[in-house]
Amino acid sequence: TEDLPPDAKIETRIALTLARSLPALRSRLADLARDPTRRLSALVVDLFGTDAFDLCAEFGMKPYIFFPSTAMCLSLFLHLPDLDAKVSCEFEDMDEPVRLPGCVPLHGGDLLDPVQDRKNDAYKWVLHHATRYRLAEGILVNTFMELEEGALKALQRPEPGKPSVYPVGPMVRAGSGEGGDDGSECLRWLDEQPRGSVLFVSFGSGGTLTYDQLIELAHGLEMSKQRFLWVVRTPHDTTNATYFKSSQAERDPLEFLPKGFLERTKERGLLIPSWAPQIKVLSHESTGGFLSHCGWNSVLESVVHGVPFIAWPLYAEQRMNAVMLTEDLKVTLRPKAGPNGIINRTEIAVAIKGLMEGEEGKRIRNRMKDLKDAAARAVSEHGSSTKALSEVALKWKSQSVKMHP
């Protein structure tokens, strides 16, 4: 994708990369098809990989999608072609909320990032793939029934031409192998903190804050007087700047903090530049809360470990996730941004204190414990997600037998 302009959105880059990889995929499938010991029965593609469906007929495979986000977001993909045909303005300018079956109503401005500018290539790519979703035989989605019951039941309601939907989550990493070290410094620090007392602050692998927002977050953490472990990154005007290399990103993020902040908070806070072993931190008994960008992997990891959190969405489908978690499931606190788009320090401090010490925080904590138990049941031997995955596997096996009697 080096031929794309520097400001090309990440969705455009991903979709184009996958489209250009089709000749290599066809070649590999042809190799597999020639092997008498192998049987091709299904092709599972990513959410932006539906161009590969064109190869399915050629090799006698059934097309499937693995959708790594929410059932709500999947519902948007399935309804986007209809929405595109009926709405002439930008979605954020709609008078009425977007009503997806089984989901809480959404303001158009809360829909995922690449649909916010309908003239942009990123929107055209998303719409292109969304239009092809109904060509799939089935869609595996990384969620579970107890988490998104309304959306999943609506998606599973039989309709002509609608693919079968299989909730197979939560699929989360068992450990955290990425990063430059094993995170032993922060884990040792957590070992020394009281049980459930630490707020983990992290915006995922790509999330970045502006300089002004970084300053407000630092002051908010200080004002809350709570213990915290903060994965701090160099500020940037682009919310997902970590995905793109820049000279600014090479600078030490600690340089940008308020004067005296490190000294004033050293007894109750630890700052880790760029990366921490998230799974190990969330599973640690000292971790009592999570200030998160609401990336779906982070949400599921938080649910699996029963850690309540504060929703701070930045990009992609994270605003949709935050709306669902805050207004539908009611398992998060969400500080509000001001007219300038900045969440101020007082708002941040109130949310942190509310989660870690308040009555609302206790209610959320109890609800997260219920979801943790439900997640464990879903992926247990006879759980709903295990059964759904088994059902798909049996279909693939049956398809393979039909092809090779």
From TrEMBL:
UniProt keyword Transferase present: yes
SUPFAM superfamilies in the cross-refs: UDP-Glycosyltransferase/glycogen phosphorylase
GO molecular function terms attached to this record: hydroquinone glucosyltransferase activity
InterPro entries (alphabetical): UDP_glucos_trans (IPR002213)
Keywords carried by this UniProt record: Glycosyltransferase, Transferase
Organism domain of life: Eukaryota
EC number: 2.4.1.218
Coiled-coil regions listed in the entry: none
Pfam family name, one: UDPGT
Family membership noted in the UniProt record: Belongs to the UDP-glycosyltransferase family.
Protein name, UniProt field: Hydroquinone glucosyltransferase
Source species: Opuntia streptacantha
